[in-house]
Amino acid sequence: MLYWSLMFLVIALVAGIFGFGGIASTATGIAQILFVIALVLFVVSLFTGFVRRNS
């Protein structure tokens, strides 16, 4: 999922450079959402790993 958020970030940057406002804002929004989801899943995974080690 982090891969997809980085791909949408690159698309948003390229679209922003060429001045396509609608495409850039859409791709940036998708990239932000995917990045937050990947970050939340990473934190949950870390927490689960720590809980299993301590039990």
From TrEMBL:
Keywords for this protein: Cell membrane, Membrane, Transmembrane, Transmembrane helix
Annotated TM spans: 7-24, 30-51
InterPro entries per record: DUF1328
Family from the record: Belongs to the UPF0391 family.
NCBIfam families: PRK13682.1-1 (NF010226), PRK13682.1-3 (NF010228), PRK13682.1-4 (NF010229)
Protein's name in the database: UPF0391 membrane protein KQ910_16665
